[in-house]
Structure formats: structure tokens, C-alpha cells
Amino acid sequence: MRSFNYVIVALLVLVIENARCIMFNLEPNGRKCLKGEMQAHILQQGEIEVSEVPGQTVSYEVKDSKGHIFTRDEVPHGKSWKFTFTSETFDTYEICIYSSVPPHQRGAKQEITLSIKHGVETKNYEAIAEAAKLKPIEVELKRLEDLSASIVQDFVRMRQNEEQMRDTNEATNARVLYFSIFSMCCLLGLATWQVFYLRRFFRAKKLIE
């Protein structure tokens, strides 16, 4: 079981290491948005690279679910443009990339490369190695240690979310049960009242004794 857990951690490390970059084509005067949940107080680093098309401009915008804009700028053509922001709360953040074409010009598709790093990935281990005079193997071990700690924290957060969801489900089930009992009591009381009412009505009409 322990070896199986090590395999899972190794696979997660590989996924985190490789799933950093996304590439797509942006239509003229189009927009492409990417959403993702981010933890609170985590540094996010992004890098955008745009293929050069004369006359067309590309800009980006980062905002949260409440519409608060963290960063916004125009991306230079043919260059790699970097931006950073820190997530204030646990929320869904959205990165939108816009294309703008002048009215007198016919637009063309542009190739966009977007890379996002957060948490441990944003650390500059070269600067840490120079400051602490670490060997390459020590730097790599430090990076793996930080990455493992980050994975453990993610597991802890997932477990906390699972506990919160379980508590919410149990509370919802209890409320549904109480509401069902209350509804059954109301229906039983209404049926009893209807029986006595009809009985009095039929006696008043002398249909029954």
C-alpha cells in the first residue's frame, strides 16, 4: 500500500511538472478565457507569447469571480510577456485574452502560448542556490522537498473539502428528513380534517346517519 502511494505521488509530480503550458489559436476580434480555482495568498506567474500579425493587438486580463481585475496589459508581438499576481482568497480566477483588429484591416488567426505557474513553481531556485551556495543535487533535492510539501498540503485541503462536503450533505439530509416528517404530519392532519368535514356535510344533507 505504501509503494502504491509513492507511485501516485510520483505520477502527480510528473503531471505538475508537464502540465504547465497551453497553446491555441485566437480568432480576429475574438476572446478566449480560461478559468481555474486557486488557493488564497498564492503567487501566480504567467507568461504569454503571441505570434506576430501586423496591425493586430492582443491584450489579457486576470479577474476573480466578483469581477475584481488583478492585472491587465497589452502583449507585444513576437515577444514573451510575463505577469504576476497574488490570489487574495480561495476563488475561481479567470484569464481572458482578447484580439483587436482595426476596422479597415482583414484579421488573421494568432497563435497564443500561455504558461501558468503557481506556488512552488514560482520559486527561483537558482537565486536560492547562489545565496546558500548549494550544489546542483542539493538544489534539486530542495525543489523536490518543496514540491512534496505542496502535494501534501493539497491532499490536506482535499480532505478538508471532503469533510466540509460530508457535513453539508449530512445537514441537508437531516433537514430533508425533518421536512418530510412535517409534510406527512400536515397531510395526515388535512386528511383527518377532510374526513370529519365530509362526515358533517353528509349528515347535514341527511345522506348518512
Produce a short descriptive summary.
With 209 residues, the protein is of the alpha+beta class.
How would you describe this structure to a colleague?
The chain has a 4-stranded antiparallel β-sheet, with no helix packed on it. The chain has a 4-stranded antiparallel β-sheet with strand order 2-7-4-5, with no helix packed on it. It is 45% helix and 30% strand. The protein is elongated, with a radius of gyration of 30 Å. The protein has helices at residues 2-18, 125-132, 136-204; strands spanning 21-26, 31-38, 43-50, 57-63, 69-75, 80-86, 91-100, 110-118. By secondary structure, the protein is of the alpha+beta class. It is built from 3 helices and 8 strands. The chain has a domain at 20-119: Sandwich (Jelly Rolls). It is found in: Membrane. Its main location: membrane. InterPro entries: Emp24-like, GOLD_dom.
Question: Please, what is the oligomeric state?
Answer: single chain
Question: Which range does the strand content fall in?
Answer: 25-35%
The profile of the biggest β sheet is:
4 strands, antiparallel
* CATH architecture descriptor of the domain at 20-119: Sandwich
| Range of helix content | 40-55%
In the CATH hierarchy, the third-tier topology of the domain at 20-119 is known as Jelly Rolls
CATH classification, class level of the domain at 20-119:
Mainly Beta
Distance between the termini: 78 Å
Task: Describe the secondary structure blueprint for this structure.
Elements: H1 2-18, E1 21-26, E2 31-38, E3 43-50, E4 57-63, E5 69-75, E6 80-86, E7 91-100, E8 110-118, H2 125-132, H3 136-204
Antiparallel strand pairs: 1-8, 2-7, 3-6, 3-8, 4-5, 4-7
Helix pairs in contact: 2-3
